[in-house]
């Protein structure tokens, strides 16, 4: 098969890249290994992690269209109460982590709606479920990618002038011999205040296998997981208690805090203030990442709220799942941990009334679209990262370093983002690293590999460090990166120039910046303060 642009990986970055290139008139092939497009928003089942100003600014126009489409889908297809139907900033789940907590299948439907005209016209071909297994190169160029079907013996060789790596872990980088980094860089390499003295390439953030729950009458206890005894007794040195407990370190202070858990609290969805500046929202884990609040819907529609479990105790930080020979085994152990957390919740978790266990908790695999009840894919926080022309470092955006000056403003900015530098416990035994951030920009130089000419990152694999990945890995930034990668491939095809030339030639950079802005990408922030 052949196309103008090949996008490998159908997460948020891949979808945005394919959409941008197809809108520009390019033929596009998009591949994805899981059953749903959308990555962390859908197959990984993570409600959007967004900044406090997302309803006003700080995201691309197409990302706004995705968010608006999700709300409109609920209004068109769900029996909302009259009050909720008229709620401009409808939060279907009334979760505290985001102003738009929703069921992942809705995002899948909206993504398919956005791509539908390009699939119908033949401009976009989606190969699903396919994963990359080989890359052919000629010097500093990718000349072909081979993808294999997930479930049968079927391989397809694809050629394209531009190949975009939008996989969750940067799979094309080792396959193509592209130079990349994993884990912690050293303080000597980056000058970052939070970096260790020596580089730790195998020290990476935890992965998590999320799942959805409701709470209804009856006993819905799952079979006891094979490894339950290990996980029930497991006590990380820095945790303050067993991993399976209501206690864990506070990400910002590292103080050991105890969270509550009250299913179906019958709270008012409109009273939820999902603003991370004011409240991280994780006091009651039930409402933290709730994706369906039954009081948003007509009586009887939902027997229970639905909550999404992406909580501290499901973080698997025993070993990395990138560049290790037993990655599949560790991913299976991460799934075992999630099942063990569920079994603990159903049988042993302390209740407010002094009892133990919530047998009414019911696993909702129908909500996550999986036969085994968990999310289709693991939530990957940290990918392989290209060695880029420009690498974003902590001192570029740290609130403690930059203060009232704000984040570094890049002459080649192609987007914006905002999130605290939020690193979960890592495979090297590190606790949370959580650093205040300034609203930041996305430099084009972070999307340009130091050597490869026609391979572009389109997700979490851009030129960040282990530290700054903690800010650049979230939903709206991943989408922005992918969209710009798609626009850059189109621009280079139209001009007959390389991505490197676009960045380093003032005239071309000015023209591309105009193109990006015209597409609805915000290259600068208004004057606001960080948190």
How many DSSP H or I helices? 16
Could you give the order of strands across the largest sheet? 3-2-1-7-22
Q: Which strand-content bin applies to the residues?
A: 15-25%
Structural class: alpha+beta
> Which segments are poorly predicted (pLDDT under 50) over 5 or more consecutive residues?
none
Mean pLDDT: 97
How many strands, which pairing sense, and closed or not: the largest β-sheet?
Answer: 5 strands, parallel
Percent in helix: 25-40%
**Total DSSP E strands:** 22
Kindly, what is the distance between the CA atoms of the first and last residues, rounded to a whole number of angstroms? 48 Å
**Cα gyration radius (Å):** 22 Å
Present the secondary structure layout.
Elements: E1 5-8, H1 12-23, E2 28-31, H2 61-77, H3 82-85, H4 104-120, E3 124-127, E4 130-138, E5 141-149, E6 155-158, E7 162-165, H5 172-176, E8 180-181, H6 187-190, E9 207-208, E10 211-215, H7 228-233, E11 247-249, E12 256-258, H8 285-288, E13 290-292, E14 306-309, E15 315-316, H9 327-347, E16 361-363, H10 365-368, E17 385-386, H11 394-397, H12 399-402, E18 413-417, E19 421-423, E20 433-435, E21 440-443, E22 455-457, H13 469-472, H14 475-495, H15 499-504, H16 506-518
Parallel strand pairs: 1-2, 1-7, 2-3, 7-22
Antiparallel strand pairs: 4-5, 5-6, 8-17, 9-15, 10-14, 10-16, 11-12, 13-14, 18-21, 19-20
Helix pairs in contact: 1-4, 1-14, 2-4
